[in-house]
Amino acid sequence: MDPVDELWRRGGVARVRTLRAAGVSAHSLRRSKERLEVVTVRQGWVALPDADPQIVGAAAHGVVLSCVTAAERRGLWIPEKTPLHVAARPNAARIRVPSQVVVHWSKPVVPRPPDATVDELLNVLAVIAQCQPFETALVIWESAMNKGYVDGARLRGLDLPAPARALLERARPFADSGLETIVIHRLRWLGLRMLPQAWCLDRRVDLLIGDRLVIQIDGATHTGEQRDKDIAHDAQLVLRGYRVLRFSYEQVMHRWSEVQSVIMEAVAQGAHLS
User: Does the keyword Cell wall biogenesis/degradation apply (predicted)?
Assistant: First the structure.
């Protein structure tokens, strides 16, 4: 069996033991190394020369990509750019990584296979719960739920750390973006009924507060035809008695006090009441 083909099927990085078990001979592996088709990343691990640098780095240092780094690789909504986060076995020997890399030593919720270079999603969520501020962790958890990667029933059956249990009580799968999660979390103190992705006039709105107050949140790339359709829908909502407030990504993430002030005034005016 060709070691290059087998490595490609396994994402570009693998243990030598795993390749041998799959049928790669020691001779063919040695020839591939001589031709520089395969490189050694550390004892017992090899990779393709153009393999993912993050994966190669994890294998080289005996860790797995985890926390927000692994979440971002899965396409989950991460509020801000962060340093590289990895996880190591709690009983592992000293891990030598660059100073800017964050290492998590916590016990995994589910066992990590010996060939793993990226942590299991359940472990990733548990690490995030212990590493990130509550709001950031909630955004990522709800992103995972919204995409159908996990659900409450599955999570409740695990031996989760206390911070993860607290998140599980709050997280819901309905928010369609991290911005919606942030807005709902920051407005929860109002004690009003809030429905994310509510149907109004045959289309979804980002958030409905009470009966009539619609909050629309524009992402960083909300432009073009989609924006035109949303603005036209806003006009129809207003004509039918809804109050519509639209905010940008920059307002929510960097000028929240202004956003909250406007929403509080609308509530004080009874805009949420039918």
Answer: no
Domain match, 166 and 199 both: no
pLDDT band at 180 (very low <50, low <70, confident <90, very high): very high
224 Ramachandran zone, left/alpha/beta (phi>0; psi -120 to 50): left
21, amino acid identity: A
Which residues span the domain enclosing 258? 178-268
Pick the closest to residue 183 from 157, 153, 212, 209 (CA basis): 209
79/208 Cα distance (integer angstroms): 23
Show Cβ contacts of residue 232 under 8 Å, excluding neighbours closer than 6 positions.
none
Radius of gyration of the chain (CA): 24
Residue 129 lies in a domain: yes
pLDDT at 220: 61
Q: Which residues contact 180 (CB under 8 A, 6 or more apart)?
A: 196, 197, 206, 207, 217
Tracing tokens 């909250």 back to the chain, one arrives at 260
Please state, in angstroms and rounded to a whole number, the distance separating the CA atoms of residues 160 and 196.
27
Q: Looking at residue 221, what is its pLDDT?
A: 59
